[in-house]
């Protein structure tokens, strides 16, 4: 693959490599990242159905919660955070 | 299958469940009959908001207020967690004109009913609920209001009634009520057999007229439909229920002040009610209209509701809805419930609470048990009497079950 | 409001074929797809990342054929990708939510005819640990693998159905270590399916299946027939899997458990049709005893009980992409005939041979579904602590106490436990919750689906408010 097709994304402060056309879920999984979300009962979850139906892969993307990462394309520099379902911060509370 | 009872309660919603519980507590042999599951109808399609704020001074208000005293203890008493939380209600006034009416209302309620109401200004509101639109002029804090899980409440009453010896027949339809030669209640006929009983309580909510017709009474309860939208779990949008003051006008149809809303909002009786839920979602409404027993979600109504909610919470526009539901409230012409005996000996009615059934359930159950056991009522039941409608007899008695 | 002769919901093989046919018959077609590209789960255009090969033989040809046919008519079709249909009324008003990084907008289309082609989801049976990160549906993992993404090093594939074999084939071709392929069917369990393939005109599928199996065998992947993964162990992700032998009713046999190395587990029992849209419109459904799930009723031109509403592809019944494409054509031709764009005679000439061709495919589909259908014994692996509704974290223990307190159907169960109230709206737990209520009580009640209501998918409240109409579609 040509290097120009690769770019960086941020995942909980870490820089990961993603490829053009990849969804966020694909990019994270390709980097062996499996935990996408923690439920209100604090149990970890990751992608399950891979087709946008189960909503298990929801994450905070560029500050927006509840983004389905298996249907959302990764973009250069996008900030991805593990979603803590029980304690999502409102936009005002963000630094 | 039970074949006799001291009293049969028809309807397994929160009202019927509460009536069953308090009757069983009085030592009567109670049989509760429900055509579907417990808390299946209106009780499972409401918002679980226990609200004082939508009353005006009078008996209706006293009934709500008295009911409110039950909830803090009820989880322990019933042995079921009903999810009671007393976080109050925040009422919003969207214009200076509305704010003036609200201030008068607040003063009146504090003076006449001694309620813990408090007027708030624009900055107070932004401080306690920062997602409220910045252009909201003022509001009122109703500290005594609370929320609970209505399904748990209904099931809790039934569970506790059963422990006291009541029998519960769910998924059982009443098909007729037989009177004896003196015109007194003699038995209840169901699709699973007959129950001999001298007393029947019609607690069938929006279906109460159907049961009334079985003994020739024309009960003027009409289904008043309401929609609710459920929001996706996200950050905490509000800490407490938030409603627009205009809601009271939409509900009570009181004149005098007119909101600036679209024709659709007016036609569908749309007014903002926003509540956080125990599960971390938020739900919002509301709509009020008469379309029979239709409980399908209507996009025209959802659209007007969404627009109205966004007007008070602009951030909602970006948040997701995941579900909607629709129920029918049992409306009466004077907005007061019927908690009363009737001219048919042994036939009682506990129905017609419109949007306040959950809140008034406990007190309604208690009052009905006092009426049936013929002991002095805890509060005046005069304005809940059937005699305000008692001229309403069906002309033909063909609805009686034939011998 | 935009008007259209034909609105097609779903851009997989069935929906694309219907769109091609509709456009050729001069219908004004709107095609709606929730993903960013057409093709559905099977025939999506392969990505550059794909190392595993684009699939084999007939599948590859079908992919090329379908996409080039669509390109030929693309300018005649209004296409909405990245668009979730969130409401369809019985008056055939379709509400969709178009989303892209730069724009979210609401689109409303008044359709004369609707073709529902929204496909299927993996059929699952819960078991301890299936909620852990690293457990995927077979279809889900396949989607990632076909895109060149393999999230682990030791994969266990557990379940039934043709997708299982396909997944293992893709995995071994991608050079991934498959620690175990686990199937509760006996080694001869697939024999009736093979027979049906050979005699039902499915010889190409038979050859493809044999080729897959041959390739897998060559890589000496361990197969466990008459076994199933009964537990996934791990703290916050998959760290291993427990495999148990099962009896003829697929009940795990105690004492036969063994641990298998795994960091990824794929599970599934073939597919279940997605029926929400049809049920929301008010199309009649029935529970099919043979297949063990709900089906939308339709006639031989794929029309449902609601006039002018058609259901095609795996959303009608599971039978694969070739048959799905044929059904799409039949529905589009019938829609055109009803709209007076084509004579009765011409419609008949186009439809009849396809109907004949479909007979064999449907027989094969039914046979495959039957052999893949979870048998009752499997539910023994569900413990009180097992999560059943993933969204609301409702366990089998919660279901048991609800039934003990009188819950009689899944809508009653939903009210008591929140099962099915979450984001997926019961898509994965609804079917199996019926079976688990039977297990809890030992009583056979009539099975039901959750009441269908809009929004079918989560949708921004601003979209419901209609405050962001798509500019290109304003009248």
Could you characterize what this model shows?
The complex is a heterotrimer of chains A (about 100), B (about 400) and C (about 475). With about 100 residues, chain A is mainly beta. Chain A contains one helix and eight strands; from the N terminus they run E-E-H-E-E-E-E-E-E. The longest helix of chain A is centred in the first third of the chain and has 7 residues, at about 25-30. Chain A is globular. The termini of chain A are far apart. With about 400 residues, chain B is α/β, with parallel strands linked by helices. In chain B, about 30% of the residues lie in helices and about 25% in strands. Chain B has helices at about 15-25, 60-70, 70-80, 95-115, 120-130, 150-165, 210-215, 245-250, 265, 300-310, 355-370; strands at about 5-10, 30-35, 50, 90-95, 115-120, 140, 145, 165-170, 175-180, 185-190, 195, 200, 220-230, 240-245, 275, 280-285, 320-330, 340, 345-350. In chain B, the strands form four sheets. Chain B has an eight-stranded mixed beta sheet with strand order 5-6-4-14-15-16-13-17, with helices on both faces. The longest helix of chain B has 18 residues, at about 95-115. Mean pLDDT of chain B is about 90; it is low at about 395-403. With about 475 residues, chain C is of the alpha/beta class. The longest helix of chain C has 29 residues, at about 345-370. The radius of gyration of chain C is 22 Å and the shape is globular. Classes of the chains: A mainly beta (about 100), B alpha/beta (about 400), C alpha/beta (about 475). At the B-C interface, helix 6, strand 13, helix 10 and strand 17 of B face helix 12, strand 22 and helix 14 of C.
Keywords for this structure?
heterotrimer; B: 403 residues; alpha/beta; eight-stranded mixed beta sheet; six-stranded mixed beta sheet; 11 helices; disordered C terminus; C: 475 residues; seven-stranded mixed beta sheet; five-stranded parallel beta sheet; 14 helices; 22 strands; globular
TL;DR?
Chain B has 403 residues and is α/β, with parallel strands linked by helices.
SSE order and pairing:
The complex is a heterotrimer of chains A (95), B (403) and C (475).
Chain A lengths: L5 E6 L2 E6 L4 H7 L6 E2 L5 E2 L12 E4 L2 E5 L10 E3 L1 E2 L11
Parallel strand pairs in A: 1-7, 3-8
Antiparallel strand pairs in A: 1-2, 3-4, 5-6, 5-7
Chain B lengths: L6 E4 L3 H12 L4 E4 L15 E2 L8 H10 L2 H8 L10 E5 L2 H18 L3 E5 H7 L9 E5 L3 E2 L2 H14 L3 E3 L4 E6 L5 E6 L2 E4 L3 E3 L5 H6 L8 E10 L10 E3 L1 H7 L10 H5 L5 E4 L5 E4 L13 H14 L7 E12 L6 E4 L5 E5 L5 H16 L31
Parallel strand pairs in B: 1-2, 1-12, 2-8, 4-14, 12-19
Antiparallel strand pairs in B: 3-7, 4-6, 5-6, 9-10, 10-11, 13-16, 13-17, 14-15, 15-16, 18-19
Helix pairs in contact in B: 1-6, 1-11, 2-11
Chain C lengths: L1 E8 L3 H12 L4 E4 L7 H4 L13 H17 L3 E4 L2 E6 L4 E8 L2 E14 L3 E3 L12 E3 H9 L7 E7 L1 H12 L3 E7 L7 H9 L3 H16 L4 E3 L1 E7 L6 E6 L12 E3 L3 E6 L1 E3 L2 H6 L3 E4 L4 E4 L12 E3 L9 H18 L5 H29 L14 E3 L4 E2 H9 L5 H8 L12 H12 L17 E2 H4 L11
